[in-house]
Amino acid sequence: MTLPASTVLVFLDPAFENGRVADSSQPQLMATDLGATRGDGVFESLLAVEGRARKVQAHLNRLESSARALDLNIPEQDVWRRAIDTAITEFRDAFPAPSPAEDEVVVKLLVTRGVEGASTPTCWIQASPSPAGSRRQRETGIDVVLLDRGFDTEAGDRAPWLLLGAKTLSYAVNMAALRYAHKQGADDAIFTSTDGRVLEGPTSTVLLAHVETVDDGAGSARTVKRLITPQLDSGILPGTSQDALFAKAKAAGWELGYGPLVPEDLFDADAVWLISSIRLIAPVNHVDGREIGTPAMRKQLTAELNELFAGIE
Amino acid sequence: MTLPASTVLVFLDPAFENGRVADSSQPQLMATDLGATRGDGVFESLLAVEGRARKVQAHLNRLESSARALDLNIPEQDVWRRAIDTAITEFRDAFPAPSPAEDEVVVKLLVTRGVEGASTPTCWIQASPSPAGSRRQRETGIDVVLLDRGFDTEAGDRAPWLLLGAKTLSYAVNMAALRYAHKQGADDAIFTSTDGRVLEGPTSTVLLAHVETVDDGAGSARTVKRLITPQLDSGILPGTSQDALFAKAKAAGWELGYGPLVPEDLFDADAVWLISSIRLIAPVNHVDGREIGTPAMRKQLTAELNELFAGIE
Q1: At what angle do helices B240-251 and B295-310 cross, to 10 degrees?
Q2: Which of B115, B151, B162 faces A4 most closely, judged by CB atoms?
Q3: ipTM field
Q4: What would the pLDDT profile of A219-259 be if each residue is shown by its tens digit?
Q5: Which residue in A5, A254, A267, B111 is deepest, having the highest Cβ count within 10 Å?
Q6: What are the distances in angstroms from CA A96 to CA A136, B152, B155?
Q7: Which terms under GO biological process does the entry name (chains A, B) (predicted)?
Q8: Which residues of A touch B163 (CB under 8 A)?
Q9: Nearest C-alpha of chain B: how many angstroms from A157?
């Protein structure tokens, strides 16, 4: 058995106020846990930068919302907060970052329906290093392919048992889509609906930007920058990073828009990004082999968004 | 932590020719196993009756097919067979059945992509008692509701990354559909496609029967019995029990048919069943509150199918 490198585990346990630290080199889950046998549970991934967990409130809110969709009762947010703090502290003590710029910790919050026959969810925090590949893709950008998600944009409203707005542990399709994209020579995928809409990435939210120069009516030109994401009621996961970035962008004078978006909107954009809590803002260089905008425009707009995003707590 | 009642675990392990028996009262899975964190894996459930595992070849074939859809390399069938035998023997030694009629063991075969960062699947067998509720429903029958699966019948062919023909560990939607059905006062569900076809149950295959009396052309009447199931290329899981039963039914003079089926076909049938490897043949009394056939006809046809099914190896 290969040991996971540099992982800290903290289980939520009523007997331990700040969470129970567990040895990550040893088995810690029952083989009959319904997370392992049915993918029956929910999760969140967030990033701690220089010891500070980002967007904790948004992630805890979404975890609660996902749990509600699955009829799971989970511990209160303060319990999660204390366990998150424990995990980050333990991780940074055990594996100090060589420099502040590299001081990133991936923090996963996991909930399963618990052991078969019991009625108590299994809840834990996993802290691990941020993947080098993700950090690289923030710089180099990524190529993506469009993949059919099989659902229409009304399915989530019509059929709540499809759990479309919940971040469940049943991620086999998301992982299969990524493997399929890699086989096509791409780095990632963007899902589309059967009614032709742009949805989301398997582990990220889609953003696009348009930059226009308009006449201000008084004889001089003004630059209008617009940031657009697919509408939330199309059966996608509400993006915590997209939401936080939109707030910052609005304050900085960007116009904001919500879909519906079709693939042609991606090809027409000045820049497209996949945004998520760990890889953060990944500029999309090509969609299905077609270049998006120009390298200079992508670079400039990505730098602007990164600056806005750096201010997020 | 609640201990799972009467469970035997056998891990597939190259160091143990017949599988490695593990203590089911102790954690045996790494918390970073991608089965637990991503539902990334495949499984099978089969029944051992009086110590004899049923349809082992069909289940091992389907496990291989599911694993292939997920790009998982799994051990050879003989390795699985030996571990299955170990699990059944250990279980029956530890928990002897009070009578031959109760000598049923549920045998699950589980494969995950393994621990994060490793490249070796985690494979194990879980042996446990057959649920009393399932055995009861074979007798009493079940009420079901029709639930939209969100996909059309072409989605599986068009988008292999949706894994529609694979039995993956990502079963959160199947479990949510069952919870939804229970909240409606039903026992189970039948999924329908967005193009209006009958698909399958969350954990079972749909069967229906028509019984007709026809003139044989020579002045006397002949009874024609027809057994029908949805066509396999509609993105459903190929049912090992349906397949085995069809072979027996054909030999006994039944006519066989494959869909497309629409909900009206269920309402028009003389009997409908959900068939699966553990609960076996469960007659459907009502679909969306409408009675299927008559109690006498359901009972008679169910008895006939049970007799055919008893002969399955």
Answers
A1: 90
A2: B115
A3: 0.94
A4: 888 899 999 999 988 999 999 999 999 999 999 999 999 99
A5: B111
A6: 20, 51, 48
A7: carboxylic acid biosynthetic process
A8: 172-173, 176
A9: 11
Question: Is A2 close to B158, i.e. CB distance below 8 A?
Answer: no
Length of chain B, please? 313
Given a contact cutoff of 8 angstroms between Cβ atoms, the answer to whether A4 and A23 are in contact is: no
Nearest CB to A173: which of B7, B33, B163?
B163
Contact A235, A155 (CB under 8 A): yes
Contact B146, B287 (CB under 8 A): yes
% helix, strand, coil for chain B, step of 5: 35, 30, 35
Residue whose entry in the numeric block shows the structure tokens 């639930």: B147
| Spatial distance between the Cα atoms of A57 and A70, rounded to a whole number of angstroms | 20
Per-residue pLDDT tens digits for A256-310: 999 999 999 999 999 999 999 999 999 999 999 999 999 999 999 999 999 999 9
CA distance A170 to chain B (A): 4
User: In the numeric block, which tokens belong to residue A197?
Assistant: 């809409």
Helix (H, G, I), strand (E, B) or coil at B196: coil
Query: Up-side HSE of residue B45: CA atoms within 13 Å toward CB?
Result: 20
Amino acid, res. B103: D
Distance from CA of B177 to the nearest CA of A (A): 5
> Looking at chain A, which residue has its C-alpha nearest residue B169?
A38
Tokens describing residue B127: 């042996």
Residues whose CB is less than 8 angstroms from the CB of residue B305 and which lie 6 or more positions away in sequence, other chains included:
B245, B249, B273, B281
What domains can be seen in chain B, in order of their start residue?
8-130 (3.30.470.10), 136-310 (3.20.10.10)
- Nearest Cα of chain A lies from the Cα of B7 at a distance, in angstroms, of 9
Helix axes A295-310, A240-251, angle to 10 degrees: 90
Q: Which residue of B20, B30, B45, B145 is the best one to mutate when testing the A interface, meaning the one whose CB has the most A CBs within 10 A?
A: B30
Cβ-count burial of A77 within 10 angstroms (0-12 exposed, 13-18 middle, 19+ buried)? middle
DSSP single-letter state for residue A165: T
Q: What is the DSSP secondary structure assignment for residue B54, as one 8-state letter?
A: S
Contact list, A116 vs chain B (CB under 8 Å): 4, 128
Of B28, B148, B172, Cβ closest to residue A39: B172
Please compute the mean of the pLDDT values over residues B148-177 and round it to a whole number: 96
- Written as six digits, the tokens of B24 are 């089911």
Amino acid at the residue A79:
V
Which token pair is B173? Answer: 């939607």
- Using CB atoms and an 8 Å cut-off, which of residues 151-180 of chain A contact chain B? 151-152, 155, 158-164, 168-177, 179-180
B residues 3-62 closer than 8 Å to A (CB): 3-5, 7, 9, 22, 24, 26-33, 35-41, 43
Q: Give the chain B residue nearest A10 (alpha carbons).
A: B31
Residue from B87, B22, B90 nearest A29 by CA: B22
- Whole-Å CA distances, A90 to A77, A85, A105, B140: 20, 8, 11, 55
The pLDDT tens digits for A53-100 are 999 999 999 999 999 999 999 999 999 999 999 999 999 999 999 999
Contact state of B29 with A36 under an 8 Å Cβ cutoff: yes
Give the separation between CA A84 and CA A133, rounded to whole angstroms.
24
Q: Angle, to 10 degrees, between the axis of helix A56-69 and the axis of helix A77-94? A: 120
